[in-house]
């Protein structure tokens, strides 16, 4: 049998005061309104003994806010690599006094629409629309009427919602610069390239990483020594692409893999060819998957800042809800702004100077 919720009237009755007096005491205004210390003690004692908790939803609705947020994702909440994104969002919401509701669509537009409706029915103050892998997508019209932030997603058309994504272009630039600074002049690509259009479909990361790489190489009067497009960035494709690379260039000196799963296959292919990392071949990658640490040597990888992405998205959303009163000043921005967070290098000894 469920236990009846203790109400403010129960506290007032037990303390022998009116509901108004009990409310004033429990809201911290007892002394201000000259309620005697003895009465205040009775009210607080009754509240404690009865286990009274204020109805936050009712209070919030009276004040025009429920202090709740919604997060609608494709598969991010259960994805192995993006748990930190949810962790960052939950912790930021908690730190700022909000609760986060999470729903997953598994890529089904009907489920997405139903989740958005359900969260709005529950009067959430704002919604984050989230993707597991950075992608461009249309923003549902329903979200244009509620404070919204896009997390790991770029809008396909102009929208009021700001977006928070990794700075993939800057990471591509940094990967190329890392190898150039080590003296490498012939840099091979596994996963995309060599041309700007040689990228898997629907991959923001591929386009932007390649853009940054080519930009830095071009500034040095260089182009990729070779490029090997992989439709799926997984170890078997990295292995096959590296074998094709070795067939054409038996002694490569530097390789950029477009993610760590490709790098796993590249490591295998290079080792099968009798080439040592980094003595013979330097390798750089992206994403900072757990396997990056397990390779020998570990692959130097530019990390996606999952936790910071989740935290920044919540700060932006609450700033839009409260007008910046509770979130950091830096989070307040114009509508439709794209916030790109740096991808730090996790150096692990896979790069050596020429």
Fraction of residues in H or I helices: 40-55%
Radius of gyration: 27 Å
What is the string of helix and strand elements? HHHHEHEHEEEHEHEHEHEHEHEE
Tell me about the largest β-sheet.
Answer: 6 strands, parallel
Which runs of at least 5 residues are low in confidence (pLDDT < 50)? 328-332
Distance between the termini: 74 Å
Shape: elongated
Numbering strands along the chain, what is their spatial order in the largest sheet? 2-1-3-4-5-11
- In terms of DSSP E residues, the strand content is 15-25%
Number of helices: 12
Please tell me the overall pLDDT: 88
Structural class, judged by helices and strands? alpha/beta
Question: Which features characterize this protein?
Answer:
354 residues, alpha/beta, 6-stranded parallel sheet, 6-stranded mixed sheet, 12 helices, 40% helix
